[in-house]
Design goal:
It is a single chain. The chain has about 180 residues and is of the alpha/beta class. The chain is about 20% helix and about 30% strand. The protein is built from 3 helices and 9 strands, in the order βαβαβββαββββ. The strands form 2 sheets. Strands 4-3-2-5-6-7 form a 6-stranded mixed beta sheet, with helices on both faces. The chain has a 3-stranded antiparallel beta sheet with strand order 1-9-8. α1 crosses α2. It binds inosinic acid and magnesium ion (MG).
């Protein structure tokens, strides 16, 4: 039982920097959708912390629903295969939908989800992502509301995991191997 304590991920984006940016994104969204009602669709599980903070930074009437997807195993590289593991509880037809993701890496997950949601005939469909790793893009997906562009490093914290761990870190850090 004398395992050494695991090293904490090296900080990349502090909790304060993330909070300031999330507040800004909330203001942009509140302004762009003024007088409309928003349907937030958060992608489980990675975006749960971002979605919780973002929706509280938006001053509009809104609903929140969740989509579960699986594109990775417990490894740090994509399988390229996307599968819905938990579908929305309510229809989005005629609604102004904002898909909320934690990170766009290869882009395969958001490409699949945007195409899937579009077939459900929302009034409008936009994408918010906390992070983008453009160096890894395999398909290009425009991000309407982006928190931060980062380099090609594997990050954890603020909802993002590695093998289900680190989601509760208040900051975003790089796993040291
Ligand atoms: P994509 O389909 O390659 O864009 O992968 C998107 C998904 O992979 C994200 O929703 C995350 O769940 C996961 N992912 C990609 N990069 C990272 C990372 O650096 N840290 C944690 N999860 C990641
Ligand atoms: Mg995810």
């Amino acid at each position: 039982m004398n395992e050494p304590a695991p090293e904490l991920p090296a900080p990349l984006l502090s909790a304060a920097v993330i909070q300031a940016r999330v507040q800004e994104l909330g203001q942009f969204i509140s302004r762009d959708y003024a007088d409309k009602e928003l349907a937030i669709v958060a992608v489980l599980a990675g975006s749960f912390v971002f979605a919780a903070d973002l929706c509280r930074a938006i001053e509009l009437p809104l609903s929140v629903d969740f989509l579960g997807v699986r594109s990775y195993g417990d490894s740090t590289s994509t399988s390229g295969v996307v599968r819905i593991t938990h579908d929305l509880m309510r229809p989005i037809e005629g609604k102004h939908v904002l898909l909320v993701e934690d990170i766009v890496d290869t882009g395969l997950t958001v490409r699949f989800l945007m195409d899937n949601l579009q077939t459900r005939r929302p009034a409008s469909l936009r994408l918010a992502s906390l992070l983008n790793k453009p160096e890894r893009a395999r398909v290009s997906v425009p991000i309407d509301y982006l928190g931060f562009t980062i380099e090609d490093v594997f990050v954890v914290g603020y909802g993002l995991d590695h093998a289900q761990r680190y989601r509760n870190l208040p900051y975003i850090g790089v796993l040291q191997s």
